[in-house]
Amino acid sequence: MPVALIAHGGAGRWRPGSDADALEGLRAAVTAGRSVLVRGGSALDAVCATVVLLEDNPVFNAGTGAVLNLDGACELDACVMESAQARVGAVSGLQRVRNPILVARKVMEETDHALLTGEGALRFARAMGFGDHDPVTPDRQADWRDKRAKLLGDGGGHTLRMREFLRSHPEYAGGTVGAAAVDANGLLAAATSTGGVTLKLAGRVGDSPIPGAGNYACAHLAASATGTGEFVLRSLATRAMAERVERGMTLVAAMEEVLSALGRDYDADVGLIAVDALGAPVARHRTPDMPHAWFAGAGEPLARMRA
Ligand code: ASP
């Protein structure tokens, strides 16, 4: 079976001046995932290896360097899923951990649960040996101060309804990471990790940790979504793609149909990546940018800012 992997660094408008860092980071992460797959490793190991590197790279909005919520804290969401028996593990609102994706994997492998949140997720992480780690970077903190001042300077009335504010500041969106892969045994896996949307209310949970919304894997595809998570939650975008592929649609057609419905129904600022069981990686987005990288078969990793 041909192996393939695709990863994204978030749909939105990429922060000016860091294009090269984003593409380099994605290429390096996909190279790590690729080396797992070419030596016969699982899609699950490959997407985790990819996402760990992206979480550790402060350019992206996941793990170290994730965006801050309105209170100035990083609340991290992550999900990992594999096609075999629809195994899934996720965490939401997780603080002070370096690699949320690995905690999500532990939820999948070591518990009877699918999703742990907040304080309970943190206690579980510590019990599994994940040490204390402050993911807040000085860069994100400065960014948070600046955005929060603008938001509150506007009268503060936007704090409960942020969408218009973020629409007029598209440079504040993006940076979530995700990966989807198929391995030599034909198993598929997807992993997604994020700090969520910037200046979100404390306790807000997005699409990324929700199977079938921001992250999904089944026998037909593995997929990760990015962009304003509320739209992805309302459309169950990754599951909607899988249903189309299951009915015989190509992955490209399924992705385009789901994205066009997201445009028609909500004018949603979202992007999708996926790989199908045949090893074809696909990316599409409704935002100016969505840095992504991929490889398929014997090919070398490629990266670009827009699909
Ligand atoms: N989908 C993520 C969320 O809403 C954010 C993003 O992808 O930029 O939490």
Task: Please tell me about this protein's structure.
- With 307 residues, the chain is an alpha+beta fold.
- The chain has one domain: 4-Layer Sandwich (Glutamine Phosphoribosylpyrophosphate, subunit 1, domain 1).
- 36% of the residues lie in helices and 21% in strands.
- It contains nine helices and twelve strands.
- An eight-stranded mixed β-sheet has the order 4-3-2-6-5-1-11-12. A four-stranded antiparallel β-sheet has the order 7-8-9-10, covered by helices on one side.
- The longest helix is centred in the N-terminal third of the chain and has 20 residues, at 19-38.
- The two termini are 26 Å apart.
- The model has no long low-confidence stretch (mean pLDDT 95).
- The structure holds aspartic acid.
- Aspartic acid binds next to strand 8.
Helix content: 25-40%
Q: What share of the residues does DSSP label as strand, in percent?
A: 15-25%
Count structural domains. 1
> Would you give the CATH topology?
Glutamine Phosphoribosylpyrophosphate, subunit 1, domain 1
Poorly predicted residue ranges: none
Topology of this structure?
Elements: E1 4-8, H1 19-38, H2 43-56, E2 76-82, E3 87-94, H3 100-110, E4 115-117, H4 118-127, H5 138-153, H6 163-168, E5 177-182, E6 188-194, E7 215-217, E8 221-227, H7 229-235, H8 237-246, H9 251-266, E9 270-276, E10 281-285, E11 292-296, E12 302-304
Helix pairs in contact: 1-2, 2-3, 8-9
Bound molecules: aspartic acid.
Aspartic acid binds next to strand 8.
